[in-house]
Amino acid sequence: MRVLVVGGAGYIGSHMAKMLVKSGHEVTVFDNLTTGFLRSVKYGRLVEGDLDDMKLLEMLFVENHFDGVMHFAANSLVGESITNPAKYYRNNVGNTINLLDVMVRHKVKSFIFSSTAATFGEPEYVPIDEKHPQNPINPYGSSKLMVERILQDYAKAYGLNSVCLRYFNACGADPEGEIGECHDPETHLIPLVLQAASGRRESITVFGQDYPTKDGTCIRDYIHISDLCSAHSLALDYVLSGKGQGALMFNLGNGSGFSVRQVIDMVNKVVAEDGCSFNVEYGARRIGDPAVLIADSTRAKDQLGWSPVFDSLEVIVRHAWEWEKKLAKLN
Predict the structure, then answer these.
(1) Which of 11, 140, 154, 211 is catalytic?
(2) pLDDT tens column, 239-253
(3) pLDDT in tens, 295-309
(4) How far from 189 is each of 36, 195, 326, CA to CA, in Å?
(5) Where are the beta strands (DSSP E) in the chain?
(6) Whether the Cβ atoms of residue 151 and residue 113 lie closer than 8 Å to each other
(7) How far apart are the first and last CA of the chain?
(8) Residue 277 carries which DSSP code?
């Protein structure tokens, strides 16, 4: 298959491009490199550009006959979305419409969308399944929900078949160590703790120790990047095979959560083998942090045949630590 990976220089997109190429597919990576990294594009042909460049998009689809499109390009910082919502609606929604319209014009009808658990907002129950009410509490979550609804309308009007994959906490790194997580600024717990362990950060702060959980810290559902990509690959196959018609939605997670304290303890165990340690500081709860977020991925398992392979917290941390050690040498 010929697959366009939009945002393929980013964390998830770069791992996706590798998996697709290793599976024998022809991959074109489209990225403006504002948050992605050129060094992460190790698989596929890179076309540097922006989704607001309609001439470039048209040329890209004229010159290539894509079988499907995977869309990972989005602004994703919750705090920034609150202070600068225009940026998020313009890029996450407006530019996605640009991409969809070019797809419709060129009769490319298979689309895989990177959505988020942020579309649900404050959980009413856990684990969170696809029937859970969607009430996002920030512009980032709202922008992703808008695209989900747009896809439902495009399916009815234009026959565009899509799968939205809502995931919780993407983590880990390529098991072979070629690529991994790299954000600027970094906001994800596991790489933050590992940066403290490698010396690239002075300490790690735990926000809140009085949540109604076993150890008082937040619990989150961590899904390994390779498992995330395998779900995207299965989703694309599902749509291209004709089984996936319309706009479909799936939640992705391990189905079990780990607390902030458990993550810190596991990192401490792994990095101690290399003689490393780190300082932990404690702060007050952050506004908008639910006590527990866990996904119910039953639908993805039943319909896509997906199941996480790297569901051990220790394996996730070990893969991420190997990658962090490489980053620490580069910086």
Answers:
(1) 140
(2) 999 998 999 999 999
(3) 999 999 999 999 999
(4) 19, 10, 18
(5) 2-6, 26-31, 45-48, 68-71, 110-116, 161-167, 169-171, 204-207, 219-220, 222-224, 247-252, 258-259, 280-283, 292-293
(6) yes
(7) 37
(8) -
Q: Which residues contact 50 (CB under 8 A, 6 or more apart)?
A: 32, 56, 95
Question: Dihedral through CA 86, CA 91, CA 92, CA 96, nearest 10?
Answer: 140
Instruction: Choose among 197, 193, 186: nearest CA to 258.
Output: 193
Distance CA 266, CA 181 (A): 18
The encoded tokens of residue 331 equal 């910086």
> In this structure, what are the phi and psi dihedrals at residue 213, rounded to the nearest 5 degrees?
-125, 170
User: Is 140 designated active site?
Assistant: yes
DSSP classification of residue 20:
H
User: Using one digit for the tens of pLDDT, what is the confidence trace for 175-190?
Assistant: 999 999 987 788 899 9
Question: Does residue 260 contact residue 189 with C-beta atoms inside 8 Å?
Answer: yes
Residue 227: partners with Cβ closer than 8 Å, 6 or more residues away: 252, 306, 308, 309, 310, 311
